[in-house]
Automatic annotation (TrEMBL):
It is an enzyme of class 6 (ligase). Pfam families: tRNA-synt_1b. InterPro entries: aa-tRNA-synth_I_CS, aa-tRNA-synth_Ic, Rossmann-like_a/b/a_fold, S4_RNA-bd_sf, Tyr-tRNA-ligase, Tyr-tRNA-ligase_bac-type, Tyr-tRNA-ligase_bac_2. This is Tyrosine--tRNA ligase.
Amino acid sequence: MTAKSVTSPSLSKGVGHALEVSLRGADELLPQDEWIKKLQRSEATGQPLRIKLGLDPTAPDIHIGHTVVLNKMRQLQDLGHTVIFLIGDFTTTIGDPSGRNSTRPPLTREQIEANAQTYYRQASMVLDPDRTEIRYNSEWSDPLGARGMIQLAAKYTVARMMERDDFNKRFKAGQSISVHEFLYPLMQGYDSVALESDLELGGTDQKFNLLVGRHLQQEYGQEPQCILTMPLLEGLDGVEKMSKSKNNYIGISEDASTMYAKVLSISDVLMWRWYTLLSFRSLAEIEALKAEVEAGRNPKDAKVALAKEITARFHSAAAADAAEQDFNNRSKGGIPDEIPERTVSGAPIGIALLLKQAGLVESNGEGNRMIDGGGVRIDSTVISDKGLKLPAGSYVLQVGKRKFARVLLS
């Protein structure tokens, strides 16, 4: 499902544009009529809306799948609204059960603090740090105390909590649900109360938690927030959601050449979805580019543009240009400007063993398989003889399209 725009001649140009930006690539915007009223009030008063995104620092790094919601935050930030990047240092100690069929063990305080140190630095590659409010939910969660926690829990029923899909499935399957797991959506919802949020963003798997925030704001006498859910980005395979465990991800801290090459590896179909969710180009520009491809332009041109845009965002325009040149050089059988250097002794030495000692393969057997497949080059020449022994000298070894080493053999 994708959120649909409801146009109205009564909307001003500014509000209409803000609504279009809000809905771009979104799964749901709830309730849309309330969001329009908030936008109209903001335009009339000049008071920016407060837009919240919370991320639990459960791992030290984030991948570009995580940036789908960050991109939306940046788009709303560019409209002049206040964006709040909330680091869930308290909620991480509980462990988010969303989408899980078992209890997730909470991290230690040391693990949380170590992970949190890198989160904002990485998020700042997308958000404008000078216009971003950084908060930690331990600010108000720790002082709540036992009495406050009990009072908070009294504002939500067990029946409502059991409407949550993952809890319901686990209960029916006879799987355990710990009481502390009920506290997670309550504490995430309480964040919206503490921050007086107008809009909260999250992935589609966070919808229940975001709705709890709306309920609690009403309980505390606040105007309830609207919620905007963004789809989970498919990974490089175009099937599973992007995940490190699936090895179908692009880490935002990966080097420019790797990032560029990975974007180019996605399918032509997936490319357009990535454009919608990851690119900062306008929808009109994307549609024009798509029309050109449908009219006969090589889709690789569009994919190259996307790869350069994403690489430049997390590195620089110069790094993206260099990554493009490096990729082209490799695809033509050329040698990159910068490759690792290795010193190996024992000449004369068999080619498979040399590949292993140069760090290009993990075993002699893998080396031999690569030779059989025509995937090994020495000084740009394909090697087919597995019995080849190399005398002392300097060689550029290549395995596959992307593994190189300059070896000094003695």
